[in-house]
Write a structure and sequence with these properties.
The complex is a heterodimer of chains A (253) and B (670). Chain A is α+β, with helices and mostly antiparallel strands and 253 residues long. Chain A has helices spanning 33-46, 121-128, 150-160, 167-171, 178-189, 198-211, 222-226, 234-246; strands at 3-9, 18-24, 69-70, 73-74, 99-103, 112-114, 117-118. Chain A is built from eight helices and seven strands; from the N terminus they run ββαβββββααααααα. Classes of the chains: A alpha+beta (253), B alpha/beta (670).
Chain lengths: 253, 670
């Protein structure tokens, strides 16, 4: 296959970016999208041009490091038959001669570092605000001390599969990080270990989310539509219920 | 241990040094050693801890757990990672599970049995004392993770579920669907972020360690490069912990993350830390086969698939082209069930991998033929794949149950190959997955440099020549949560007596200048070949000559080829851009340069060890049936290599392995 790429090039956070067109020849349909970018970069390097910077690491869809907007949708969800990360999108999803636009996540809370690479440290700060159970090493009771209903454990797991890639923010017209925050809220809210800090956690995490400049949720659902781990939109419902409930709890104040 | 280097193969490539031994594990019965060591270790008063700085490189299970735990204890922790967040560390990709001797299944499990299985699985090349401790703390790890809110799989009773894993006959593996590593890492990450909020831990993301600072014989800091600005900086402290993972990417294609590298460990090695058993690499049997030359990494599917999937190849070469569903039952060779009737498809990883290679070498492999080079340099095309068949499992359990157990793995396979795994058998082939070798450490996890600790996959201690499934997560978390926080205090207790150090200390100035000089050198070459092309070539050499089967002749060829590659790298590599920028080509160049040096040592280690053990199959040492033949008379030791300078022969220090609590046996899974 031969592909025409239009890629966002931006030297650094302060500089102006622009779309640059490249031709990529001899692309195999078994290649992943990132392997196709490797091919472009090999070509650019040999020519003495600077390769395109993009974040990636595990290339098996679990670390959350990769993520670009492809033809207008985060992780190229619009081209993929199933939920996917950028690294798990394969070139068989495109046809020979295709013109593909590649852009970074665009959101004020995720400033561009270079080309397709953005700074997502705002997510770490949301977790720092309360996305944990305060149990220090050595203080744990026997693992079977608390039985957990399988249904709740499964729901906790489903929410906990979030990889923190930031696609939800990139896809949201409000650039809201609610799906990310709500996934953590729901994960810990479903488990007995998460109960003591539950009211406090939600207030702190939502406050941190807003402080980072993420927008509010208006139930559009683009976030869940592009989420590579298919975190359901109803975790935001859980967040809203918990937030409301926390207002009536002493330790939530 | 009367052998001299003259009698060891490859003696031209190294010199033999003095034997070494661990001096930290106390004498006495094995089940008392850890509690005695904890009691014997010097303590640090809680009020003094905040005055002490511990530098931790890596944020995976070992590094993240250690940083969180030492932060909780009150030390001032500086924690570094090259990724944009601590949550990205490659521990996150572990799928299958984590072992613990809880005996929740009432199936005769115990600390001793977990210890026994791990030593046996490691083919009697691990240090007994360390492994026993690992088994001993395994149950605490599960308790800790559950308390953090790790959503392990549960039964309808609300209690934790278990499954069995390759190489053992009890059900002791805890899991979170096919994403156990992710859930455990997120648990450690959350504990870590809690300490960041508490102010005890400071995270430095997108920072790569490029040198360790050794002053007056002690590790006192590191030099890092800020991957965004290119700034090269020093950080000083009282102790340094490397939890930087494994070096599987020396093979280029592996299941490791693209950024996984050996640089931190290799830089420490060059400063005096011994590298132990580097040739012990694990080739994982259940990976998705290579698709072509542009492949950048391989994807593993959890070996839990072997619990219900059956592995086979056609009996006849002429059937290898056919649709597998059209091959009659009697024309299939379920070779693992045939050769190893009692363990069948659940034999340890090294055996499953080697037999898959044997089947493909016989010409009975399936799937597309891929380009390879034989020892004479001729291009050949070989089918590299065997079937992993769930037809019988789907009939026995139903599609829904199979989907519940393995759904995410099937989806992953479908996504990568474009095939339909519920309808036709999957194809699998072994790939480099984990390295048992690493920096040498004592019982306290201290390396041969005072104050430099090594945890998790980066050290060599617990898995011998082969790692059993579900034990890497156990070791990473064990080292981070429970071992280091109880041993590092013994060293830090004396830190008030350490010499004062600041930016003007000659060791700091020199380390900083070395790093800057090296970066400038890489940027100045301006040759014609990309960094990746060198990495790929190194990978081809390693996989061909130092992969699943090794020979004396092949390893000598490999060493010669690596020497040539090294020379070309330093004269013809093309690194684009400048240092003062986000420059991924420069990052990779430094890593590949270190991989080339490591690759050579790996081959020298493999060459000198003329025995087959664990994942290390040496063609000159096999039984009449073609099974691995260990040589305990000559090789019952860990090989710890000392760096002596560029181009100089490394020195081999043997640490004799002493088995007091366990009887040495030839491994058999028949």
């Amino acid at each position: 296959m031969n592909i025409t790429l239009r890629v966002w090039r931006q030297a650094n956070a302060a500089s102006q970016g622009r779309m640059v067109t490249y031709q990529v020849q001899d692309v195999s349909e078994d290649m992943s999208f990132l392997e196709m970018l490797d091919l472009l970069n090999e070509d650019l390097t040999v020519k003495g041009e600077e390769p395109v910077a993009f974040d990636h690491d595990c290339r098996e869809g679990i670390c959350g490091m990769c993520g670009v907007v492809i033809n207008g949708t985060a992780h190229g969800r619009g081209n993929s038959p199933v939920a996917t990360t950028t690294c798990q999108l394969h070139m068989r999803s495109f046809s020979d001669g295709a013109v593909i636009d590649v852009e970074p996540w665009r959101a004020g809370s995720f400033p561009v570092i270079k080309d397709l690479v953005v700074n997502r440290s705002a997510f770490d700060r949301i977790i720092q605000a309360g996305g944990f159970v305060s149990v220090s090493t050595g203080a744990a009771p026997e693992a079977h001390a608390n039985a957990v209903s399988k249904l709740k454990a499964d729901r906790a797991f489903d929410a906990a599969t979030c990889i923190g890639c930031g696609a939800c923010v990139a896809a949201c017209p409000n650039h809201s990080g609610m799906l990310f925050a709500a996934a953590k809220i729901t994960h810990l809210a479903m488990l007995p270990q998460g109960q003591p800090e539950r009211p406090l956690r939600i207030k702190k995490m939502v406050a941190a989310h807003d402080e980072e400049g993420f927008g509010g949720c208006t139930n559009i659902g683009e976030c869940a539509a592009v989420c590579p781990k298919e975190i359901p939109l109803d975790v935001i419902g859980q967040l809203n219920r918990d937030l409301l409930a926390s207002l009536f709890k002493r330790d939530g104040k | 241990m009367a052998t001299t280097s003259k009698t060891l193969p490859g003696a031209d490539f190294f010199t033999l040094g003095a034997e070494i031994a661990d001096t930290k594990a106390p004498a006495g019965p094995i089940e008392k050693k850890w509690s005695q060591r904890k009691f014997g270790a010097k303590l640090v008063n809680p009020a003094n801890r905040r005055k002490m700085t511990v530098i931790i490189v890596g944020t995976g299970l070992a590094g993240g757990a250690a940083a969180a735990s030492l932060g909780e204890a009150g030390y001032n922790v500086l924690n570094f990672c090259y990724q944009d967040s601590p949550r990205r560390a490659h521990s996150i990709a572990a799928q299958g599970g984590i072992n613990a001797a809880k005996n929740y299944r009432n199936d005769n499990d115990s600390v001793y049995r977990l210890f026994y299985d791990t030593v046996k699985g490691g083919d009697y090349r691990a240090r007994e004392t360390n492994v026993y401790r690992l088994a001993e703390i395994s149950a605490n790890i599960i308790d800790q993770c559950v308390a953090q809110g790790v959503p392990f799989a549960r039964e309808y009773s609300g209690l934790l579920d278990n499954r069995s894993f390759g190489g053992v006959q009890v059900q002791r593996t805890f899991y979170a669907r096919g994403q156990t590593g992710q859930q455990l890492l997120i648990g450690a990450y959350q504990a870590l972020e809690r300490q960041v909020a508490a102010g005890t831990v400071k995270n430095y993301t997108r920072n790569e360690m490029l040198e360790v600072i050794v002053a007056d014989g002690r590790a006192r800091g590191i030099v890092t490069r800020d991957l965004v600005t290119g700034e090269i900086e020093t950080y000083l402290g009282d102790a340094v912990v490397l939890a930087t993972g494994g070096y599987g990417n020396v093979f280029y294609l592996s299941t490791n993350a693209m950024g996984s590298n050996v640089t931190a460990a290799w830089r420490a090695h060059r400063k005096g830390a011994y590298m132990a058993n580097p040739c012990y690499t694990q080739i994982h049997p259940t990976c998705i086969p290579v698709h072509g030359d542009s492949q950048s990494k391989l994807t593993l599917m959890s070996e839990s698939l072997r619990n219900d999937g059956r592995i086979w190849v056609p009996k006849r070469v002429e059937d290898c082209d056919k649709d597998p569903r059209d091959i009659a039952e009697e024309d299939r060779d379920y070779y693992l069930e045939r050769i190893y009737p009692s363990f069948g498809n659940l034999v340890p990883r090294d055996i499953a991998s080697r037999q898959a290679k044997n089947m493909c070498d016989e010409g009975r492999g399936v799937g597309p033929a891929v380009k390879e080079f034989d020892h004479d340099g001729n291009e050949v095309h070989v089918r590299r794949g065997v079937y992993l068949d769930f037809a019988e499992a789907i009939e026995r359990l139903g599609k829904d149950e199979v989907a519940a157990r393995y759904g995410n793995l099937f989806d992953m396979y479908a996504q990568i190959t474009g095939e339909k795994p519920y309808e036709a058998p999957m194809r699998i082939y072994p790939a480099v997955h984990y390295v048992m070798g690493g920096l040498w450490v004592d019982y306290d996890l201290m390396s041969s440099i005072q104050g430099l600790y090594v945890a998790g996959e980066a050290n060599f201690s617990d898995h011998g020549a082969n790692r059993l499934g579900a034990s890497a997560l156990m070791q990473g978390l064990g080292d981070g949560y429970f071992v280091l926080p109880n041993t590092i205090n013994d060293y830090l207790a004396d830190s008030a007596k350490f010499d004062k150090i600041d930016e003007s200390h000659p060791a700091v100035v020199e380390a900083l200048a070395d790093v800057k000089g090296r970066v400038e050198k890489l940027l100045a070459i301006q040759g014609t070949r990309s960094v990746d092309s060198f990495h790929k070539e190194l990978g081809h050499i390693m996989w061909e000559y130092c992969g699943m089967e090794r020979t004396e002749e092949g390893l000598q060829i490999a060493i010669a080829k690596i020497d040539k590659l090294n020379e070309e790298f330093w004269s013809n590599v093309k690194v684009t851009g400048v240092n003062e920028d986000f420059n991924q080509a420069l990052e990779k160049a430094g890593r590949v340069a270190d991989f080339i040096e490591l690759g050579r040592l790996l081959c020298v280690d493999a060459l000198h060890r003329r025995e087959s053990c664990g994942g290390h199959f040496r063609a000159e040492s096999q039984t009449e049936e073609g099974e691995a033949l260990r040589d305990d008379d000559q090789f019952l030791y860990a090989a710890a290599w000392e760096y002596t300078g560029e181009g100089a022969k490394p020195v081999l220090h043997k640490e004799p392995l002493v088995y007091e609590a366990i009887e040495l046996k030839q491994r058999s899974y028949k």
